[in-house]
Specification:
Elements lengths: L24 H4 L13 H6 L8 E5 L4 E5 L7 H8 L3 H20 L7 E5 L5 E3 H17 L2 E6 L6 E2 L8 E9 L10 E9 L6 E2 L5 E7 L3 E7 L5 E6 L5 E7 L3 E9 L8 H12 L3 E2 L5 H11 L1 E6 L11 H14 L3 E3 L9 E2 L8 E4 L1 H12 L17
Pfam family, one: FBPase_C
Protein name: Sedoheptulose-1,7-bisphosphatase, chloroplastic
Subcellular location: Plastid, Chloroplast
Amino acid sequence: METGIAYCGRGAFMPSQHSKSLVSPSSISPSFSSRSLKSSSLFGEALRLVPRSSSSFKVSKAKSTAIITRSEIGDSLEEFLKKATTDKGLIRVLTCMGEAMRTIGFKVRTASCGGTACVNSFGDEQLAVDMLANKVLFEALEHSHFCKYACSEEVPELQDMGGPVEGGFSVAFDPLDGSSIVDTNFAVGTIFGVWPGDKLTGVTGGDQVAAAMGVYGPRTTYVLAIKGYPGTHEFLLLDEGKWQHVKETTEIGEGKLFSPGNLRATFDNPDYDKLINYYVKEKYTLRYTGGMVPDVNQIIVKEKGVFTNVISPTTKAKLRLLFEVAPLGLLIENAGGYSSDGHQSILDKEIIGLDDRTQVAYGSKQEIIRFEETLYGKSRLKEAGGVPVGAAA
């Protein structure tokens, strides 16, 4: 793996322009290099004290059985990916996206937060830092040589990245979710989903082969889920520029932690108002930043809680299924949690158009049951007799 991506940069988000790459080792950080991890890293030294497991498990498929080695805390991203999948193309895509997010994590600390005086086709104002992240991610996908089409929330048209259809992938991403709160120094992030082949419409979130988010806060982390491989996995960016596996989440349990988005909808959605009042009455702890990435990441890291973003007659859906909701749905469900649009798992929701939007809830099983029952009177996660699906008799 190259330690600094020398993107050839076709200017995918502005096809008529050919600009120099934004990525160079010297522009990332003084400690970015190809040297192996050393104990000079405060985080790296501490992490190596964590016991490493050596267990493995079998994954049975309809036509074949594969032995997959269980990941270990302390693994590098490269070591993890080799254990999680045998698909070299997918490994390449996920590695290149990791390189891009490392660059964005550095750039977001120094980039301009001023408006660019332009608007994307959805009507959202684009900020300079959005466009920088957008460019870096397109270049990373082109450089991977395994991405056929890419599409971003900033430029919602399919861009041909030159990769193959057979054995290749299509990637949709939100380059910098929460960019409007960069200037207030809140955590922001990148979200992306990876689909096989050359389709990003007529598919579902469940068709994704991988999804991830980069979280740019006090720490920079890469949170990754691969379909068919247990758990959602967090990698920490160390001083040396390496991603190191620091956490595996396989269960989202019960816990009184809530992140309520779009509270203005409670004005004319009495059922949402009832749900919020329940959280307050039951003394849930409010943890809401206004950024979807840190709020959803919180559920994965704390292994509990619920995130909601609900519509009403006067507040329409804002969150985009392709670029945000479906990828985060795979992260949550791979971590042992659940997702819902009120009636079904987000991963079962078909993506008809690139701009499809939806309401959503992520959380533990009981929280999603509560969400569906409160808003719509019943939950798909319960049997007719009221016993939760999967519960012991």
